[in-house]
Amino acid sequence: MAHVQIHRDDISLESPTLVEGLPGVGLVGKIAADHLIDAYDMEYYASAHCEGLPEIAVYGADDPEVRPPVRFYADAERDLLVLQSDAPVSPSAAKEFAGCMVGWFRDHDVTPVFLSGRPAEKEGVPAVYGVSTGDGASMLEEADIDPPSEMGAITGPTGALIHESQRVGLTGVGLVVEADRQFPDPEAARALLQTAIGPLADFEVDTEALVEQAEEIGKAKERLAQQLQEDQDDSTSARPLGMYQ
């Protein structure tokens, strides 16, 4: 049965903000999520067991314990949750996955911040904009995050999560950043963290290590980016919509 299993009942959270880190364009969500977990030494809190997730065992360096591919990490001090994913969600099961996740968000009074990359059309500082569900528009306004300048759509599992949040009236926001369409983009992830995630969650994010480790991050995650290119349906992305599409 689809569910989220909590492993740390000793961690107390009150109406936490959740940062979602599913793989997508530029791997911006995953890079940002991984950085938060490392920067704040967050605790392994829960695991997702939903339709659409591969039944694989994930292990880390110098750690014999295996874990499921989609996990939640918690920081009680900042009332923060981060969803970390080491595998893409099957597009055929995105609806069931979104229902499983959003149902848990509602039950635990979680305010989700969804992350997506949009293929950049020009070089320069990555632009970030936000969309909302429920009462999320006021959150974007308070954090001084601009709405999109043109019509578009967020696809993939993150799009399914936002769609389900909108359907049930859950308050949340979706952040879209311009990112490299082919390779991991730590600079775009840094823009998300500094200009949007930090203000929304009301804490400062130190991203110096992220910049310094950009080359290392790129090498470590390039293989996953290549996998996502080969099967674009598994990847979260945002794209503009033409008037007659």
TrEMBL record:
<dbReference type="InterPro" id="IPR038389">
    <property type="entry name" value="PSMG2_sf"/>
</dbReference>
<dbReference type="InterPro" id="IPR019151">
    <property type="entry name" value="Proteasome_assmbl_chaperone_2"/>
</dbReference>
<protein>
    <submittedName>
        <fullName>PAC2 family protein</fullName>
    </submittedName>
</protein>
<feature type="region of interest" description="Disordered">
    <location>
        <begin position="223"/>
        <end position="245"/>
    </location>
</feature>
<dbReference type="Pfam" id="PF09754">
    <property type="entry name" value="PAC2"/>
</dbReference>
